[in-house]
Amino acid sequence: MVNRDATRRWTKRLFDPLLGKRRVEQCGLRTYDLRRPGGRRRFHLRSNADGSAVLLIDATDAIHLNPTAALLARLAFDGVPVERAAAALRRQFRGVSAAQARSDAERIYALVERLTDATDRCPTCTITSAAEAMVKWQPPFSVPISAPYKADLALTYDCNNNCRHCYNQCPRPRAAARSAEPVGSPLKKLVSESSGATAGLSGSASGISPKHTAGQAGSGTLFQQAGGSSTLSTKQWYQVLDRLAAVGVPHIIYTGGEPTLFDSLPDLIRRAADLGLVSGLNTNGRRLSDAGYVESLRSAGLDHVQITLQSDDRAVHNAMCGAAAFDETVRGLKNSLAADLHAITNTTLTRRNIGQAGRLVDFLHDLGLTVFAMNGMIFAGGGLNCGDEIGVEELAPVLADVRDRAAQRRMRFLWYTPTEYCRLSPVELELGPRRCNAGEYSICIEPNGDVIPCQSYYVPVGNILRDSWPTIWESALFRRFRNRGADPRAAGLPAPCWECPDLPLCGGGCPLEQDHRRSVSTTARESKQAEMRQTEPSVHA
């Protein structure tokens, strides 16, 4: 049984104002920002209509709570003494005995106490035995949710790099984007109707590359960023943040293009912090080479930063980025670490840098990083035709080597790319489960406010400032993404996926890669048929 005196002491200790407790509430989203000896930890308690809730820890771990646990967790975080919490439980739920109410309250309070230990790198890995009896572990990706946990805000599609493998598409027509959602249509059809042709990236290697223009969404309009209205205004982005907080999205990632080219970025971070949201930044790191700019982001409330670093070799990195970026990027990484931001890197593995993947781990370790990420080619934009992609069969031994090097140096290696487990299983490689979370746990807001499933799947389902949240969340495309396991055929997955036992965890891999392989297969078949027709002898009457 939980020690009651210890529970009382913990309640006083945790919620002592001197420890910097801060609570922000936005409709069904409560934020608790706790600063305790050993560090800081942020919690988001997102309530559902039936009284259940999800508790998110530092925007990375989730615990789903039934109505009883949700009530008790809220009272624990609000600093209500355990005796009063037990009484509140009995008032709200009939038939609960005093002993049972007290026991349940003490267990949930003990669970919350364990989770608030800021010195524990994995708060959910070692839950106290007192709470374990109340915790039912669910398979990954198995609990339906009412809103994503994360929203990527593509503030601009301009960029001061010019990576030929970049997934940003330019130009692309906006016609038929929202109308192309007949139920049961394969995802490939939606992409072909809405995304348009892919063009090569343009612009100076040292200047800003105009990838898109965020014009008004509508029939026939284009993203052609450098010349017209490039993005929503700062005030409109405030409205976007307000809207996301209202529907319960706790985690914001500023991305692009290159988000540091958006002048009001510190103001957006500050607004998100006022709403109780966690802010992260995906960047090429070049502007972070200015330590003063890094401090402006940190002081505004930036929590973490991911910097793209393609190689430890200056020449390779610059060639892949299409710009002399290496020195600024590395300096930006060092400045981020010095500012005490949680900093990681991400690397796209291609034929240009795959031979240096292991060496990169050593380079990052020497810089002081403890976490880094890698991904394969994203088959959108320049990634469709650059020809540098690595087959999954070739990736497996490279990933195993990177994994082992990271473990030897006590680093954490994150693998981002969702793959078909029958071709490359991240679970078998001991990289953890990985599945496409587009339109479910994550969404992306484009520079004009359009909502798309992810940063590289350019099929808008609505506009965050004009359309209702139910219209966006229950759109046919988003439902197909979320229902792949229940109806893989309607989702456009190939026949081998339909009865595969790994489908709930795998999700069929990346939809963009599926579409790319189908397109390549169709093109090859059509070319072969054309060749055969040309070699057939002519028959004359």
Task: Give a structural overview.
The protein is α/β, with parallel strands linked by helices. Helix content is 35%, strand content 15%. The chain is built from 18 helices and 17 strands. It has helices spanning 4-14, 67-77, 82-92, 98-115, 129-132, 187-194, 234-247, 265-274, 291-300, 314-321, 326-338, 357-367, 392-408, 469-473, 476-482, 495-498, 503-506, 511-535; strands spanning 22-26, 29-36, 39-47, 53-57, 61-65, 150-154, 158-159, 209-210, 251-255, 278-283, 304-308, 342-348, 371-375, 412-415, 442-445, 450-452, 462-463. The strands form three sheets. It has a ten-stranded mixed beta sheet, covered by helices on one side. A hairpin with a 2-residue loop joins strand 1 (22-26) and strand 2. Helix 1 crosses helix 4 (98-115), helix 8 (265-274) packs parallel to helix 9 and helix 12 runs parallel beside helix 13 (392-408). The radius of gyration is 25 Å and the shape is globular. It starts with a helix and ends in a 6-residue tail after the last helix. Residues 1-20 and 174-229 have low confidence and may be disordered.
